[in-house]
Amino acid sequence: MGIIGNHILLILLILLILPILLPPPTKKKSSITLKTPKTMLIENPKTYKGREVETIFFRPAFCGDSAEQLGVRVIYNMPMPTTVQVWSRPDDVLQTYASGWSGGSNARKLQKRIDMHKVKAETSFSAEDYFSMVFEQITGRTDINMGDLSGTELEKAETELFRQAIAEGVRATMWLGDTDGDVSDFTTFNGFLKAIKTAHESSAEGLSFTEYAIGDFNDVGEIFEMSWITASHELRSLRSEGNLAYFISSDLRHEYECLLDEKGVDSAYRESIDGRPTLSYHGIPVIEVPLGKYSKKQYYAKQFCILTDRRNLVLALNTSDMPENEVRMWYNPDEMENRQRAVFLAGTEILDERLLSACIAIVE
User: Fold this and answer.
1) Which of 353, 342, 324 has the alpha carbon at shortest distance from 57?
2) For residue 92, what pLDDT is reported?
3) Which of 29, 192, 201, 352 is most buried, by the most CB atoms less than 10 A from its CB?
4) Across residues 344-355, what is the average pLDDT?
5) Concatenated DSSP letters for 224-261?
6) What is the pLDDT of residues 22-65, one digit of tens each?
7) DSSP readout, 156-225?
8) Cα 320 vs. chain centroid, distance in angstroms?
9) 196 pLDDT more than 50
10) DSSP secondary-structure letter at 55?
């Protein structure tokens, strides 16, 4: 064969043997670790600080459609101590003309300081349960290759899971919160019902408050009427601005829908079948405050109807004024747990008691 033929034969032999001798190529490590044939873990830690906490966790949960459902004013990262001003112009600024400056009354200024409390949210899951919950968040999406999940997609799913838990905790506490434990077992910061209770007990100027026993009214329509009739003139005059709303407990919403179902018109029949995404009474939106699942932890105002201006109820959140404010998600190998923690400041305030009319059922 000659020298050239021997060299060609040797090269071919090396090319055939080389793949057998070399180890298989290693794949890039993803954020999922396969421990056993049936157990998968999510181990990559994630930390969010400062503005990231606001933009990733809180604004998506309390803006847009979510904020519309809450029906309250939400403010973020106001300077500490957090204060909010309310201005009201004079009722009549017109004067008989005369040369020079005649002067007039100054605009009324009301300033409220929001009592902010440091809050910590923590949850933990077994490694298997956590993976199943996160994995379930993305299985319904068609734009993901389930055989090659990237860390970004898992991070989004983890973030959404924790964000929902934080949002629900804040939503419940902004109504039921009471650091003294008289209103409910939610004691991290004071909520709106606590503020109403305190204002009533201290005889706050201008507050319209009606206490009733369940069964005193024939139907929920009479409760709406009582809230409107007893409201201050200042509150009723704001109707034209389009920000008034009735905030009601879940049982009153059900009663109201049953009342509407009894109307003998075609639209009532269709709505009784299709449901009502939104409700209103005499053109004023009716917003349900779904607290029924916390009834065992609630000791005050289990049934209520509150008429107010949406801008009068303020939820304040602060994620930037303290260095330890953060959101962390990590895996603890000692306990085989995935843990999540969020630290932030939260508080609520009713800006002007004159702009609120409450009907509260007596808890027996």
Assistant:
1) 342
2) 66
3) 192
4) 92
5) HHHHHHTS-HHHHGGGGGT-EEEEEEHHHHHHHHHHHH
6) 555 444 444 455 444 344 677 778 888 877 777 877 778 777 66
7) HHHHHHHHHHHHHHHHHHHHH--TTSSSBS--SS--HHHHHHHHHHTT-TT-EEEEE-TTSSSSHHHHHH
8) 18
9) yes
10) I
CA distance 315 to 179: 16
Q: What is the DSSP string of 281-346?
A: ETTEEEEEE--GGGGGGB-S-SSEEEEEEGGGEEEEEESSSSTT-EEEEEEETTTTEEEEEEEEEE
Segment 275-305, tens digit of pLDDT: 788 899 999 999 999 998 898 888 888 899 9
Contacts of 245 (CB under 8 A, 6+ apart): 71, 284, 285, 286, 287, 307, 308, 309, 310
Over the stretch 72-104, which tens digit does the pLDDT of each residue have?
Answer: 888 887 877 788 876 666 666 677 777 777 666
Tokens 């049934």 belong to: 303
The per-residue pLDDT for range 130-167, each reduced to its tens digit, is 777 777 766 666 555 555 445 566 777 778 888 888 88
Structure-block tokens of residue 56: 């990733």
Is the Cα torsion angle 16, 17, 22, 26 positive or negative in sign? positive
- Measured CA to CA in angstroms, residue 89 lies from 93, 353, 358 at distances of 9, 18, 25
Greatest CA separation for the chain: 124
